[in-house]
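Narrative of activities, Objective 1.

The group set out to show that a structural description can be obtained from nothing but a protein's sequence at a throughput compatible with the screening campaign. Below is one input-output pair from the validation batch, recorded exactly as produced.
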Amino acid sequence: MGAAEPLGIIAGGGGLPVRIAEAVAASGRPVVVAVLDGHGDAQAYGAYPSRSFRWGLVAQLLVWLKAQGVRQLVLAGTVSRPSILSLRPDAAGMKLLARVGRAAFSGDDSILRAVMKVLDEEGFEVLGAQEVLAGLLPPAALLAGAAPDELARADIQRGIAVCRALGIADVGQGCVVQHGLVLAVEAIEGTDAMLARCGPLHREGPGGVLVKCLKPGQSRLADLPTIGPRTVDGAISAGLRGLAFEANGTILLEREATIARAAAAGIFLLAFDPAEYNEGTTA
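Output recorded for this entry:
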């Protein structure tokens, strides 16, 4: 029997791509990592064939992955979207960017779909992180803290409606709601930065709720909503009373640490079924 086909990982920042690489390698399958320069930490992948590429050389990245025998790919990790002017693409990169087309100037999900199409045309099969690393997407459950009361449930319901509107416009995946007031919505800055600006907006009374949802029709192959210990820390600093995220569609990083941190702070951590928070639903 021949050697197992390597899994390629295009790695952004954070611990998720590192965990995927470790789990896949432990299963006996070879791993090849293309690190996005300025986002992922190349030193974290010293145990595997790896190479860093800046955005403008992404066409070279794909050529390198093919040369390594990669057919299946996982896109994982945090990425700050670059401006078009900062890309400095080479000739091959210019051709690839032309294939992405107008989506390069659109929202993140539009770009992702265009990139997926190009990867498919190049002969790659993109897998979701949850397909190679079990337990990333929690089912509906109260994971920490007391169950949301009527006020918190109303904030969650309002947050879901706001997230859906944001998602339809391909803007973001999260918002903060307190007493029915939308304190902040997530755009290109990301969840951590959104939470950082919520503190001064805090109203008297019970704290607000961070709500994270999939965009309507979003691909589940990359860029899923993500929550981890840093998210809980940001929620605590912002004076929130809880975090609510879509069950079976949100990545929970460092599960035990995230749950423990929320429990220690006395805030709730809820993986919710959106059907339970449809307009007109009562507790």
